[in-house]
């Protein structure tokens, strides 16, 4: 999904974020986005591990 954006698109998104949120809010927005992404990855890992555990129990 993100591989289709390219460098010019990424620069455009960053400039728009800077204009919309301003330089003082941008670190807070980035931190919040990072925390959200971290929690999402953690949840998906837990779901996948639960699914593999269920498959192992059914096979045994």
From TrEMBL:
Keywords: Cell membrane, Membrane, Protein transport, Translocation, Transmembrane, Transmembrane helix, Transport. It is a single-pass membrane protein. Pfam families: TatA_B_E (PF02416). The keyword Transport applies. InterPro entries: TatA/B/E (IPR003369), TatA/E (IPR006312). It is found in: Cell membrane. Coiled coil: none annotated. Forms a complex with TatC. Belongs to the TatA/E family. Part of the twin-arginine translocation (Tat) system that transports large folded proteins containing a characteristic twin-arginine motif in their signal peptide across membranes. TatA could form the protein-conducting channel of the Tat system. This is Sec-independent protein translocase protein TatA. It comes from Robertmurraya mangrovi.
């Amino acid at each position: 999904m993100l591989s289709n954006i390219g460098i010019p698109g990424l620069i455009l998104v960053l400039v728009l974020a800077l204009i919309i949120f301003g330089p003082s809010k941008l670190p807070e927005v980035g931190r919040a986005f990072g925390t959200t992404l971290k929690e999402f990855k953690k949840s998906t890992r837990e779901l996948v591990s639960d699914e593999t555990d269920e498959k192992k129990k059914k096979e045994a």
